């Protein structure tokens, strides 16, 4: 089958080519999918997109009219594809769930440790030959209360990591994981109770209509003033205007994230020469207690291998007309 891979990164092409092993005809473009680039899919039966691609309704219509039938998402999240619209048009859509829960959870842990132990500041200081310790005080994770919002595959790994540090763990999820309760002594509770009691809060939920700006002014107000908030899910789960206000008033101790609510046009690009025009992002980056990474949590060798393998398997399943275990149900409704 002919596949056009949008938003293809140089580092992922060898993984995709290796997993394909010459079976499908793959063309790569570094361009992101949007209304202006949809025409490139003409002549292709399938496309593969990433989290930053725009598969809005009018884009899907252009793709369908050009002959595309299958959409393979190289990510777990699929909030950039209106699933109901896609299936109404006739598309089949599949994603790459659970390609490496450890990669994401370990990155969240890295953000937490870097913020708490002032690793970025320490590195800057010693490179300037400043070896003072005055501004580098952190705290032990052992004995602290960690709130995990979302205990699916990634959240469950985060629970186990925090349990290994000797933390008390609170969790909030519509479907409690009984195994975590038994293995890690997790206590499921309400969102408000979790926010009020936790020293550290880590987000591990998908972006959905219900979860959009789940963490807003009210929830930030519930948090203790020494709380560290970690977000490796999706940027729009946090209301950034309220987040910035909480950082300004010191309602929140620190924020570590691998995502941002308006990544399109900024993330996955080198803007060092041109700069950025997003004033909200500039403000967020002005805080010394904010650590933002460029959506790299998934970026491990193991994760890239799994994403490539799942992508090719999804495509092969569709080509053969056999059930695809990663096909997204047409009943799934998201933003």
Compact overview of the structure:
This protein folds into 2 domains: 2-99 and 301-320, NAD(P)-binding Rossmann-like Domain (Rossmann fold); 101-292, Rossmann fold, CATH 3.40.50. The chain contains 12 helices and 12 strands.
Description:
By secondary structure, the protein is of the alpha/beta class. The protein folds into 2 domains: 2-99 and 301-320, Rossmann fold (3-Layer(aba) Sandwich), CATH 3.40.50; 101-292, Rossmann fold, CATH 3.40.50. Helices cover 35% and strands 14% of the residues. The protein has helices spanning 13-20, 57-65, 83-89, 101-116, 119-127, 153-164, 178-184, 191-197, 217-222, 240-248, 279-285, 301-320, and strands at 2-5, 25-28, 46-49, 70-73, 92-94, 145-149, 168-172, 187-188, 200-203, 228-231, 254-257, 290-292. The longest helix has 20 residues, at 301-320. It is globular, with a radius of gyration of 21 Å. The two termini are 30 Å apart. The model is unreliable at 331-335 (pLDDT under 50).
Q: What do we call the CATH topology of the largest domain?
A: Rossmann fold
**Helix share bin:** 25-40%
The count of domains is 2
Specify the biggest β-sheet.
7 strands, parallel
User: Which ranges are low-confidence, i.e. pLDDT below 50, for 5 or more consecutive residues?
Assistant: 331-335
CATH architecture of the largest domain: 3-Layer(aba) Sandwich
Q: Can you count the beta strands?
A: 12
């Amino acid at each position: 089958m002919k596949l056009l891979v949008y938003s293809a990164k140089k580092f992922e092409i060898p993984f995709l080519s290796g997993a394909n092993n010459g079976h499908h005809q793959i063309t790569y473009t570094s361009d992101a999918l949007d209304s202006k680039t949809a025409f490139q899919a003409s002549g292709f039966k399938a496309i593969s997109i990433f989290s930053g691609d725009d598969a809005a309704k009018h884009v899907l219509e252009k793709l369908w009219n050009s002959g595309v039938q299958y959409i393979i998402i190289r990510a777990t999240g699929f909030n950039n594809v209106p699933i109901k619209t896609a299936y109404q048009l006739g598309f089949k859509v599949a994603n790459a769930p659970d390609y490496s829960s450890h990669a994401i959870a370990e990155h969240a842990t890295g953000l937490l440790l870097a913020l708490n132990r002032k690793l970025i500041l320490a590195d800057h200081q010693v490179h300037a030959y400043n070896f003072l310790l005055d501004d580098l005080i952190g705290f032990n994770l052992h004995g602290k209360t960690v709130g995990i919002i979302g205990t699916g595959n990634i959240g469950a790994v985060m629970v186990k990591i925090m349990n290994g540090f000797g933390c008390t763990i609170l969790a909030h999820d519509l479907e409690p994981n009984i195994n975590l309760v038994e293995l890690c002594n997790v206590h499921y509770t309400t969102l408000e109770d979790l926010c009020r009691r936790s020293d550290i809060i880590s987000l591990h939920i998908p972006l959905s209509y219900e979860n959009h700006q789940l963490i807003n002014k009210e929830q930030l107000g519930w948090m203790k003033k020494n709380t560290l908030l970690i977000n490796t899910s999706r940027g729009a789960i946090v209301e950034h205007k309220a987040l910035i206000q909480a950082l300004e008033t010191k309602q929140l101790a620190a924020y570590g994230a691998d995502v941002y609510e308006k990544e399109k046009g900024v993330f996955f690009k080198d803007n060092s020469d041109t700069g950025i025009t997003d004033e909200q992002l500039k403000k967020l980056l002005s805080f010394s207690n904010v650590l933002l990474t460029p959506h790299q949590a998934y970026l491990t060798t193991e994760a890239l291998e799994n994403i490539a393998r799942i992508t090719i398997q999804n495509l092969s399943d569709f080509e053969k007309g056999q059930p695809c275990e990663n096909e997204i149900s047409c009943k799934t409704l998201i933003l």
